[in-house]
User: Fold this.
Amino acid sequence: MDSPSPKVSIIVPNYNHDRFLAKRLQSILDQTFQDFEIIYLDDASVDQSDAVVEPFLPRITQVVKNTTNSGSPFQQWNKGAKLARGQYLWIAESDDYADKHFLERLVDLLDRHPNVGLAYCQSWGVDEGDRILQSWKLNTDELDEERWQHDFVNNGKDECRRFLLFKNTLPNASAILIRRCVYEQVGYAEESLKLCGDWLTWIKILMQSDVAFTATPLNYFRTHEASVRAGSLKYLVFAEESYRVLAHVLQQYSSVLNLPAETLSQVYEVLLDRWYEGAIAHRQDSPNPTHTRIYKLANRVDPMLRRRLLRKALADPRSAEIERLQEKVLNQRTRIEHLRSRLHETQQELEGVRSRMAAMETSKFWKLRKLWFGLKKTLKLTTQTEEE
Assistant:
């Protein structure tokens, strides 16, 4: 006889997080709400994750191990979700951890609000040593400094229109409890994006349901060198995928959201700033083909992109410095080309000298001259003897 389905299915995707895995699993087992199953998915880790997870195996419902790395956390989310039996899903990333009241608080929110597709809490940012760095409220302060100080329940479409179009206001899946039927209804997580698949997934869910939030920080969101969003050049992927998220929204939900022209213009400016500022900050190591691809995509999404770019460049006080650096680079390139030309001329002259020497060596005069010097050496003749 099958056991009754749990209320919550906890999906723990892991890849090489042996340093953090025990704390993650223990924070799950310590929850005050205990009606859950644990689905552990290892994405072909090559560290000591197997040894770390072994003591926890009696409490883990299912273990799935990949033989090769999938390259996508969102594929792992979906694999876990398809194995889940619970009414709610918690994607508990293996490098994060939770307060013991996390499930108790968020399960209550979803139970009391049947139209809510996802509920989430505020997060603390922590480093590799579990030191608290900051509240993730800072992530949303630029949109509204007051709103995320208080609990709220909001219409999903309004949440997308006012906030999620501009940025991912739910940056960490570990802080979220999802209604499984809605997750399935929208076609699971978006696997085509590397960094923004979660952002687009939240939008899809909230276009079908509402959102609930508690301002109590019950999640500990870890940032470290190996985390998905770490890395100086990933801003390019993020900038490109931000435009892809907007392109999807405009294609699928434009008529439903009925976005005012002013709102769209603000979104365009935010996305352009994200790309432009990143490009300036990393201009020394930015691949030009990637920028070309982003430009083509952005130009299809934003009909005024060229004008915005020109206006931004003209207003940017760094433009003069950039022009000076570009002129310096051009002058250096010109000098290099001049030196290459001189080198080529010198090589040609040297070849000419070599050709003349080769011709001389085959002439009768040169042969006689060599014979004479050979004779002098044999007879040990000196200049003084010749003079006498």
About this structure: The beta strands are 8-14, 36-42, 62-65, 88-91, 97-98, 116-126, 132-135, 152-154, 176-179, 210-222. The two ends are 129 Å apart (CA to CA). Confidence is low (pLDDT under 50) at residues 384-388.
